[in-house]
Amino acid sequence: MVIDDKFYVGGARDRQIIRMVRGIRRFHRVKYEPGVFVITLPLFGDGILEIYELNELRQKIYTDMGDAIHIVGAAPSRFQAVLLVRDIIDDIYKKTGDVDVERFFAS
User: Fold this and answer.
1) pLDDT higher than 60, residue 83
2) Beta strands of 1-107 (E only): which ranges?
3) Distance (Å, whole) CA 85 – CA 74
4) pTM for this entry
């Protein structure tokens, strides 16, 4: 898993943000990290952004992907993650005039 430099956080207080980021970084050493939803670039080439519960990424299909999982944001609930996806797309459009999310995070 790769955490992007332009990492977005939604709907969380300072302590929650720290806990979420630590949970993502310690992902392989901790058994279960509750209440962290991550936003990734499309894993299978279809869509704009995808939302996963962090623990879902422990499944073999995802662990075999390694650094192909590109995390661009995190939120403490699925609802907050959906709102964050909207905010990310709005932000990208305001900055670039386009919604090419992969190009934005590649630069």
Assistant:
1) yes
2) 2-9, 37-40, 50-53, 70-75
3) 10
4) 0.82
69: left (phi over 0), alpha (psi -120 to 50) or beta: beta
Whether pLDDT at 103 is above 70:
yes
- Cα of 58 vs its chain's centroid, Å: 15
Which pLDDT band, with edges at 50, 70 and 90, does 40 fall under?
A: very high
CA distances from 46 to 1, 42, 43, 49 (A): 19, 6, 8, 9
Give me the half-sphere count of Cα atoms (radius 13 Å) on the Cβ side of residue 50. 16
Q: How far apart are the first and last CA of the chain?
A: 18
CA distance 13 to 84: 14
At 102, which amino acid appears? E
Give 15's pLDDT tier (boundaries 50, 70, 90).
confident
Q: From CA 62, how far away is CA 20, in angstroms rounded?
A: 19
